[in-house]
Amino acid sequence: MITFDPTFEQDALRQRIETFITQQIIPFEKDPRNTAHGPTEELRIELNALARDAGLFTPQVPEALGGMGLDHVSMAIAFEACGLSPLGPIAMHCAAPDEGNMNLLEKVATEAQKERWLKPFVAGEFRSCFSMTEPWGAGADPSELKTTARYDGDGFAVNGVKWLITGAKGAGFTIIFCDVEAQGDKPGGPTMLISGMDEDGIVLSRQIDTLDSSFAGGHWELRFEDLHIPAENVLGEIGEGFRYVQVRLAPARLTHCMRWLGGAVRAQGIALDYARRREAFGKPIGRHGEIGAMLAENEMELQQCRLMVWWACALLDKGAQGRHESSMVKTVVAEALFRVADRCVQVLGGMGVTGDTVVEQIFRETRAFRIYDGPSEVHKWAISRRIMKV
């Protein structure tokens, strides 16, 4: 039976994280190193040290690799709490794209690859990025993949253009989604390859200005120009890239929901506080019907989102693959959290469109969330095909 009552241990963890985020991380939100393109590497390292000292580093990773070894429901509770600040996931080393890449490597990488890439990555020695999205190719439809890899000596030569690659600058490595060209009896097809980011053949073309500003390293367009990748850096099997994309994206959609749920909870708290203190027409604005209704709608949608996330996580903990469930949850939660953030801006009025509170940033972040990891329309199309069985 699925229960929605947190255990004593889960509630205690939530309180620990909320206290840590409130007392130690939120004060850094106005730090000049927290830029329009995300926190700098210097700030990331400082925040990581605080989370490590608090015993709250990499909650999603198995204990054998140095993490907290949380199950999915416990992760949902922990990630919501850390999402109270846009810097919380960065501090606890569970932000995108790193969290998704850790999950993928833990499930697919060879032992040698785990030693070379995953273990120092989990320890916070470097960040990562995931090179899938293309300006005129793979994105919501990965089958439009245009980046290619041809057999070359002891490995592959990769060519192509990727964009909106989160955290590319300053990352220690990238996982590249590309199409390997078959050669004779050598297999081909969609494949994932691992490369250090300091290799010749990787060109960071430009940093892209985006709505969001919470990801370390920002978002980049990059080019691969005959990038050589040795054969031992094939992640999994050649031709199995589509399967591995789902291994990575299904749980990653849910962890996005968890983190941004925390942000929406923070926005609602700020709006509630403002509605209690700000007076207009003879009483606090929260006691006017229109404002009170918006705050009530927020409270209902936040709880609905929380229950949907926990439901999907409980299924994962029971061994389900979660692909279709995560698609439904991501769509519902992304749309609902945007409505919540939008109402919070409206309640705050003029203050809501300024940087005087974090609500303005949370609004921008949740708007982008409706597109990241698949736009709502693509998920609805996939869900309709499944229920129509076509």
From TrEMBL:
Assigned keywords, A-Z: FAD, Flavoprotein, Oxidoreductase
Domain Acyl-CoA oxidase/dehydrogenase middle: 129-226
Pfam families listed in its UniProt record: Acyl-CoA_dh_1, Acyl-CoA_dh_M, Acyl-CoA_dh_N
Entry-linked InterPro entries: Acyl-CoA_dehydrogenase, Acyl-CoA_Oxase/DH_mid-dom, Acyl-CoA_Oxase/DH_mid-dom_sf, AcylCo_DH-like_C, AcylCo_DH/oxidase_C, AcylCoA_DH/ox_N, AcylCoA_DH/ox_N_sf, AcylCoA_DH/oxidase_NM_dom_sf
GO terms for MF: acyl-CoA dehydrogenase activity; flavin adenine dinucleotide binding
Recorded coiled-coil stretches: none
A GO biological-process term: fatty acid beta-oxidation using acyl-CoA dehydrogenase
GO cellular component, one term: cytoplasm
Domain of life: Bacteria
Assembly and interaction partners: Homodimer.
Protein name: Acyl-CoA dehydrogenase
Gene source species: Notoacmeibacter marinus
